[in-house]
Amino acid sequence: MAHPNPSLREVDPVWRRIRTEAEDAIKAEPLIGGMIHACILHHNSFEGALAYRLSMKLASAEMSEQIVREIADAAYAEDSSLCAAARADIVAIVDRDPACQRFLQPLMYFKGFQAVQAYRLGHWLWQQGRRDLAYFVQMRVSEIFGVDIHPAARIGQGIMIDHAHSIVVGETAVIGDNVSMLHSVTLGGTGKEDDDRHPKIGNGVLIGAGAKVLGNITVGHCSRIAAGSVVLEDVPPMKTVAGVPARIVGEAGCSQPAMSMNQLLPNGS
Question: By the 8 A CB rule, do 199 and 184 touch?
């Protein structure tokens, strides 16, 4: 797939970095040369590589790789914000995850990144009114990655989901920009309501492993939710909450907790 903006391709630092790292990876391990060529070097743009990677992951006996690839190509051609968000997600992961030293890794190997990009494709389909295809994408993301994000949920950019096992995000949930969360996080409802019933997560929030945020509540910007907490009430901006049920135990500790990834609680908490 050609880049939708040829001039941008020439100054696309994320894509240029990925291609360079792909060439280095083949030199270091020739046995992965075929895979790296098919996934990265065969393509002229980040959009093309991402569409191919998602098609390989989401395809099944019920939906061929070619059909998924055509859907992704159409989405990226129509809405350039999808891959702009993907680029921001890659940068966020490299910046925040000490296990990630290369831009190549999220695209090739990290199911958190791949699951979020597949969600973005499903969300685009949902907005187009193509609900059954959106549900198909949601189903495959849940089956393949262990991540269940409703396609109607709204998620910003610069998202890092570390390990990304057993993530659940409900239909009316909203996640802001530059949010970090760890495995087994649930953004869910509290009952059978069919209206606006899921959490609203502000920009820059850090959500620890196993945390459950339930109901139509607001988690203020740049706050922290400690691992294992159950949050049932609004959280003010720039606070740390912990416990079951969660309570405020201190300030957030820094201006950007989602970027610092500091999960230690204040002394005495």
Answer: no
